[in-house]
Amino acid sequence: MPPSSISRQLYTQAHVDENGVTYLADRVPFGYVELADTIKHRVRFGDSLWTLAARYYSGMPRPAGFWWVIADFQPVPIVDPTIALAEGTTVLVPSVRALRELVLDNGRSRVSSD
Hints:
Blueprint: E1 12-16, E2 22-27, E3 39-42, H1 49-56, H2 67-73, E4 90-93, H3 96-103, E5 111-113
Parallel strand pairs: 1-5
Antiparallel strand pairs: 1-2, 3-4
Helix pairs in contact: 1-2
């Protein structure tokens, strides 16, 4: 079963062997890029990667599912999304434009065959 259209695993390097079996390598995160339309969000009590994604990507299908975009986009990526965000810190959120045009770019997803 292939990953869904919003899955971070779409951007994992895949290798298909001669028997048609697909193997996944480590995922390459999108990473931080300085963009003019980046949103700077000051973390408040109760904020999580899921609630921030749901808020800022509300027009997208299953917006909370894009939590991984925010985690990857930090100058120091968040590797454990289960750790609570510290109140008062700033989280950088890529805009919906950046999400659509840069992060979800089909050219980033790759499957290679040998």
